[in-house]
Amino acid sequence: MSRAELNKPAPNFTLTDFTGQEISLASFQGKKNVLLVFNRGFF
Length: 43
Hints:
Layout: E1 14-16, E2 22-24
Antiparallel strand pairs: 1-2
């Protein structure tokens, strides 16, 4: 697994969204900004 480094492109990774679909960072290539939110759950 690659580590993120300052001022370097982010390593590719794949996560599962809330609908169960897998989404990889590579699918956003060419986009200017990508916002990633890790939800810690609902209380």
